[in-house]
Specification:
Layout (H helix, E strand, L loop, with lengths): L4 E5 L3 H12 L3 E6 L5 H5 L2 H22 L11 H25 L3 E4 L1 E6 L2 E6 L2 E6 L2 E4 L3 E3 L12 E2 L13 E5 L3 H12 L3 E5 L11 H13 L3 E3 L4 E7 L2 E6 L4 E4 L1 E4 L3 E3 L31 E3 L10 H15 L13 E4 L5 E5 L2 H7 L4 E6 L4 H5 L6 E6 L6 E7 L3 H14 L3 H4 L12 H7 L2
Parallel strand pairs: 1-2, 1-7, 2-3, 7-18, 9-16, 10-11, 10-16, 11-12
Antiparallel strand pairs: 4-5, 5-6, 8-17, 13-14, 14-15, 19-20, 20-23, 21-22, 22-23
């Protein structure tokens, strides 16, 4: 059988996963990316933010050490040192990804690709334009932020996630605009680093996709830390004047700070792919696909942020693997959103998987909900993280586990076995028979399933 020539557009985590999966199944793979391997996630947004958030977590943990009488400092992290770490991590991670791709005989092209017809790409490189023919293609070009004319960053006092690695100072007072995951993480970061923070959303609640009890608990945590919250307050404009920023809300309220941070939404980065020319259908936020990643042109696939929300990396990784296998006719199951663990890297951490109580209520689905405080775990009590809680959602008659949500230390790790339980169709009774190491935080979902 002749090898399939597979073109992958995008060198971020999703594109790399698609390339590696295809390579181990015998395809001739070409990966085309405008950024070095690692993509925007490594060079501009995700990796820099996670370096900062890891530092913030360390500061919070040091604060707990102080409460126990142990020596620790909770001073804001040195920004110059963190920027040096970010630069080192960027290059180190990209080099590792490059070596991994080359070791799997994946051809790398640095440039911007667009479709000229159903089986040909035009690639704009530093040396000029080249043409690349392909049998099948996977679009993994990621996403870009949404801004408005009067509400957009300038990279100086008006900030956004893509400028994270370029911060020159911790803001004295910052207004964070946008009520989603990225905003929550940066509210936590700036607050931990000593900034005065005001958080603004146009919706009645922050984190609209999260379980209501969880989002309320995170809001309470932020309020206790001194963050000022503004619900149902659409921002009309953000203007930098001299040494301050003025954020005007639609109701006439004016907020003043030294900086503003704008994260109001994202959309798939697909505008320059020439998709209309090849009749690949797309919506407002991304390319339309089926559960195997196929677009309206069956030999062209899309995965990750390019395929629209939710913009979650592990979702994209799963879709990349499925798309590659399906394109190469390797047996694979369709994408299942019900086993995706979504995390928010604040302190306390927030996570959810499968069906939440809120989603069930909105859909009119009857469920049973079992709630347990982290205080039920000896490990949580020892580490003074016992203010969190976990909720398990199950079917009323079969008792099969349908979902879970948690807020507390290592919430995302704690919910990983719940994803396995949902995938396996386990009822609470079977799940409750598992006893992890004692004492560990990993016990929490199993304790919850037992109800004591």
């Amino acid at each position: 059988m002749e090898k399939i020539n597979l073109a992958i557009l995008g060198g971020g985590p999703v594109g790399i996963t698609a390339a590696l999966e295809a390579a181990i199944h015998g395809a001739n793979v070409t990966l085309i990316s405008a950024e070095p391997p690692g993509g925007r996630a490594t060079w501009h947004s995700l990796l820099p933010s996670k370096v900062y958030l890891t530092a913030a977590d360390s500061i919070c943990r040091k604060g707990k050490l102080t409460a126990r009488g142990l020596s620790a400092t909770t001073a804001p992290a040195d920004l110059l040192t963190l920027r040096e770490q970010i630069a080192q991590q960027k290059h180190s991670w990209s080099e590792k990804q490059t070596a991994l791709l080359k070791s799997n005989d994946i051809h790398l092209i640095s440039g911007k690709a667009s479709f000229t017809d159903l089986h040909t790409l035009n690639i704009e490189t530093e040396e000029g334009h080249i043409t690349h023919a392909f049998d099948k293609a996977i679009i993994a070009t990621g996403s870009v932020p949404i801004f408005f004319p009067d509400l957009k960053p300038d990279g100086n006092r008006l900030l956004a996630p893509r400028f994270a690695s370029q911060f020159t100072e911790w803001p004295e007072k910052i207004i964070v605009v946008g009520g989603g995951v990225t905003s929550a993480e940066f509210v936590y970061l700036f607050n931990t680093m000593g900034s005065k923070v005001e958080w603004v959303t146009d919706l009645p609640t922050f984190l609209p996709r999260s379980d209501e009890d969880i989002s309320e608990a995170l809001e309470t945590s932020f309020l206790e830390r001194g963050v000022i919250l503004h619900h149902s307050s659409p921002a009309r404009s953000a203007i930098a004047e001299n040494n301050e920023v003025i954020v005007k809300l639609q109701d006439g309220v004016i907020l003043n700070g030294t900086h503003a941070f704008i994260a109001i939404g994202r959309r798939g980065d697909i505008a320059n792919l020439n998709l209309e020319h090849i009749q690949v259908q797309a919506g407002r936020l991304g390319i339309l696909t089926d559960d195997f990643g196929q677009t309206s042109q069956p030999h062209i696939y899309a995965a990750g942020d390019a395929a629209g929300p939710p913009f979650v990396v592990n979702r994209g990784l799963a879709q990349a693997r499925i798309a590659s296998r399906h394109a190469l006719e390797v047996p694979t199951l369709p994408y299942a959103s019900g086993i995706l663990v979504e995390a928010i890297y604040t302190f306390p951490q927030v996570a959810q998987v499968g069906l939440t109580e809120k989603a069930a209520t909105e859909a009119g689905i009857p469920v049973n909900v079992t709630r347990m405080n982290f205080a039920s775990s000896l490990k949580a009590s020892l580490e003074e993280t016992d203010k969190g809680f976990i909720k398990l959602v199950s079917h009323p008659s079969s008792a099969k586990i349908l979902g879970a949500a948690a807020i507390g230390d290592h919430a995302a790790d704690i919910l990983a076995p719940v994803a396995v339980a949902i995938k396996a169709g386990l009822p609470l009774s079977s799940f409750s028979e598992i006893f992890p190491a004692y004492p560990t935080l990993s016990e929490l979902p199993f304790i919850t399933s037992r109800g004591y």
